[in-house]
Amino acid sequence: EVICGYLYDEVLGDFLLCGSGGTDTEAARDVCLIPMPATEQEIKEALASTRIGRTHLTSSREIASAVDVLTRLQHIARDSDGQLRELEINPLIVNASGSVAVDALAVPRL
Prior knowledge:
6 strands
């Protein structure tokens, strides 16, 4: 289970988020923030810096699937014209066949 998301900070700007997801996300403390805009290579490197990226996303298809989701989140955030504060998919189930978002949350900027 992976967490993928987007968050906006008023001081620091836009970030993608990725790491260990599911019910133990906060306890696992295995997430990284990726400043936007991010290239696919930067996203891959960030995933590789997480424990889940090193131990569970081991096939090139799994990595490509997670990178695709994060790239799409980046596009959604960009296309929202500043309307999103946060967008989170948790958990995202990733395997060699692709990914499935089990739950998601979108928080608008007020």
